[in-house]
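Write out the bound-state structure for nicotinamide-adenine-dinucleotide.
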Amino acid sequence: MPQNIIITGGAGFIGSHVVRLFVNKYPNYNIVNLDSLTYAGNLENLKDIAEKSNYFFEKADIRDADLLQSLFEKYKPAGVIHLAAESHVDRSISNPIEFVTTNVVGTVNLLNAFRAHSDMQNGRFYHVSTDEVYGTLGDEGKFTETTPYSPNSPYSASKAASDHFVRAYHETYKMSVVISNCSNNYGSHHFPEKLIPLMINNIKNNKSLPVYGKGENIRDWLFVEDHALAIDIIFHNGRNGETYNIGGNNEWKNIDLVKKLCEIMDRKLGRAAGESEKLITYVTDRAGHDFRYAIDASKLMNELGWAPTVAFDEGFEKTIDWYLANEEWLTNVTSGAYKHYYADMYGAG
Ligand code: NAD
Ligand code: DAU
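---
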């Protein structure tokens, strides 16, 4: 009998990579992608595996507790990998409540459905979370699994709250859980509200490149397929009740990353060297902008044997090539609602 595994948010950026990996690697699992298809969810991301016999899709909103109860009764999943979330920090600053209802209430609804309909002590509820729960770093140090939570944005506060609920269900109901907190991902199918795909899209269209503040904030970038591989390892081998940090040991100042992108894009688009860099525009900083994230992933590496497989130069080129080769995807996701979001956020620029 194949086991049912529910992956929430499987139509989003990271979720689509996780669904693809699991569908292809585990024919003995039925993979159920549970996603409400918000602006960030797109079934086009999964068209290559949509016809596989072990792939199922359920359009469902995790805020709908009754619907989750009936779906969990139907599938009785052996495991849940929970990625569905409102994920963009800037949107959380302008509309925090959506982040509470989806990220916090939605997570609790899933925990309740898993508790009611699955063998919760022998199964596995995996919450995919973020390093932003730890707050911000100065020039030195890295986040470890014991760094105290100190979220600064409504987004990270909602992810911290959902982490706490997962932990509480482990302590209170003995649910088998695992949590991972990962740094910034990059790769294909990334919605172009986020730094890297937004800049790629703007360079391509000769639009200004809005760098927040002085561009000196630092992020630790990991290729999305390496995150998916880490999720696979943690889901199967992570210790019950534990947290694992995931990161690429690959810190970049935003401005340096944007300049590197401009340089590569000039080459790929046949533009004169330095042409795209002229598009860089320093704009008002993000409110409460965390200065630096950096991850110490040694627990995951030493205990479970994970390591990133894709070097940054290779992953970055691959990512840029994917966007250049998938113009239709970019056009589709940036039509409609994206235009209003962009105008509200950045003006006409
Ligand atoms: P994303 O915004 O690209 O995708 C989110 C997915 O969740 C979409 O498919 C969307 O339709 C779905 N969704 C949103 N609200 C829903 C709801 N109410 N009901 C059902 N489905 C809903 O996000 P992402 O960047 O792929 O992130 C996935 C997860 O990983 C999130 O939990 C995020 O916090 C976490 N994470 C992201 C990063 C990153 O760099 N992107 C890093 C660490 C952790
Ligand atoms: O660290 C993990 C987190 O990484 C995830 O939990 C979030 O879901 C994900 O969105 C990401 O959050 P960030 O806020 O770090 O990512 P974003 O791409 O929005 O921004 C990266 C950096 O670039 C940040 O310092 C803000 C800056 N930035 C971003 C945008 C969109 C700009 O300078 N200009 C921009 O237009």
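---
The radius of gyration is 20 Å.
Residues 9, 11-15, 35-38, 40-41, 61-63, 83-87, 102, 106, 128, 130, 159, 182, 184-185, 191 surround nicotinamide-adenine-dinucleotide (ligand 1) (CB under 6 Å).
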